[in-house]
Please model this.
Amino acid sequence: MKDRVRRIFDRLDASVDALVVANAVDPHLDQSFFYLFDVPSGLFEGSVAVAHRDGSIDLFSSPLEAQSAEEAARSDRGITVHKVERDATPAALGQALGDAKSIALNFAELTHGWFARLDKLRPETSWVDASEAIRKVRAVKEAGEVERLRKAAEIGSKVGVEIPSMLRKGMTELDLAAEMEYRMNRLGASGRSFSTIVAFGAHGAEPHFQPGSTKLEAGVSIVCDYGAFYRRYASDITRSFRFGPADPEMRQVHETVERAQQAALDTIRPGVAAKEVHLAAAKVIDESPFKGRLIHGVGHSIGLAVHDGWGYGPKVEDKVEEGMVFTVEPGIYLPGKGGVRIEDDIVVTSKGYEFLSTAPRGYLEVAS
Amino acid sequence: MKDRVRRIFDRLDASVDALVVANAVDPHLDQSFFYLFDVPSGLFEGSVAVAHRDGSIDLFSSPLEAQSAEEAARSDRGITVHKVERDATPAALGQALGDAKSIALNFAELTHGWFARLDKLRPETSWVDASEAIRKVRAVKEAGEVERLRKAAEIGSKVGVEIPSMLRKGMTELDLAAEMEYRMNRLGASGRSFSTIVAFGAHGAEPHFQPGSTKLEAGVSIVCDYGAFYRRYASDITRSFRFGPADPEMRQVHETVERAQQAALDTIRPGVAAKEVHLAAAKVIDESPFKGRLIHGVGHSIGLAVHDGWGYGPKVEDKVEEGMVFTVEPGIYLPGKGGVRIEDDIVVTSKGYEFLSTAPRGYLEVAS
Model:
């Protein structure tokens, strides 16, 4: 992916000779490795990409993925695959790096153990943090990336539409999560993009709750936050429901969150600061009876990871750009009672935004 | 988990004042965080544990998981939870670390970005690599950990028994993976422990192949490598099948792998070097017509991660100890034709080993 390498180098100091992206052991893999090398299959533990200023890449791959690496490299002429045993990587790296004096690394996803090994191997090298450059380049998607993200969001949206029909009294949070993930996989996902959140009742007050064996009973609210990977790209969607007798307060909470989401969406266009998107949603919530109950940033970039580089919080000055893909997900959390979050995935267009996720956002009160 | 903290400190230099375990953004979470803090729910991005020599822990958690953190800490009196905004963490950390001069870090799972931030915060500190100590302590499981691993393996084994009945002409690799994952989740898994490998035909020659849209046809071999998470602990099982007309060569391959696995298993007892386990399997394969076709280490530790700290390769001198849990998984890979791998999870006992996974290991030739 010569263009991607060049875009990253454009943001680095002119003195930088090379960029090294190194994977440790699962889950400590640098997702940028798969940005530089678009390979559909393989784990690539211990593999390393050395990218040069001219856009070319030396890729050091273990025998465990040699076949995939070689196939993928055949359609990307900038990449030379070197098949190495994991232990041989440092010596092989030395050759590819030649007399490079200044080498960039992705501090955000490189383990410190890898850094220490590299620093020992090349004690004279000046190491440069490329994580800001990589974050910014990865944030603006190419058309092909948007298509994968759209497909990932479509898979999630179809399942979102089906959630109400899956609800059964007595089912556990884990049961519902299993059903949702199965349907995403049947629709072509290669797996969930993060650990599915299904929170019944008071559990919904915790944004990162993980499902357990709590059973569904009539008269609770439900938060489902989930997403699919499609060809390594993520979706991330939240829908909130009510099971059984309606609750006027939770309905009001949902309506407030809907208005907050729309207010955030209305701000989105190239040039606006990320914090403005957050603040628009926060304002709606803080002017409602639920003041102070939004306890997280209102969105985050998505791409090769579900939390892909940056968030939309009250202090984020980064500007929104055309081609960025991110979530818009205000929520209101009432400890002891539950929560409501609505989360959609959007792509920034030249004049505003377009939804990638399409499931209805309105509050569904499902008969128990 | 005071005992765990103390066991880690026992392996560190007496001058070390504190151990810091810091999470970055998903997937760059240090699994040791969940070793020190046994919390069933929550993602804990950006959260940090500061462990002290007396076994106590200061835990800095974001509001996103505050409820889970506080609940879990109530049953673990050594832990004090500090609820902080992510941005406030450095200042809060400073307080907990006091005048500590020598601080240990888990280089293997800490991002270099986190290290750079800590080093800037405390430029006078001497940083010590605790990854070897942590790896060794985590490798020997407590009874409660073995029970979770056993449950994770049971879930995988039940699904392994069912795989032959799931096979249908025309189904894709992704279809089969979806079905396997669904059944694991229905049996109580909180998800797959790694990206499920389903490889039809020649794909089986690549150990880390990821399933795609290739359809099942009669006359191919199938490799299924998969596992479940149960209460954060992983299983990892591989079974290989033949769909449709038998193939004498692949049957011979399978028999050779079975013998190799048994040879490896027969070496397992406390005190034997890890490399002996590998070499026993490699010898069987290298004395067969498939010499040189074992292209990976014959096993790895499992625990809070599926690749949990170390492997069983030809050069690994570490000694096997009672309470260790690892996989035994020789394979033979024939490029262009396919592969066979058999993988089981075992726990080391005082005299030998016990299987955690139980699905039949024999070669199943399934009618197409």
User: Anything to note?
Assistant: The domain at 2-139 of chain A is CATH 3.40.350.10 (Creatine Amidinohydrolase; Chain A, domain 1). DSSP finds ten helices and 18 strands in chain A. Chain A has two domains: 2-139, 143-366. The mean pLDDT of chain A is 95.
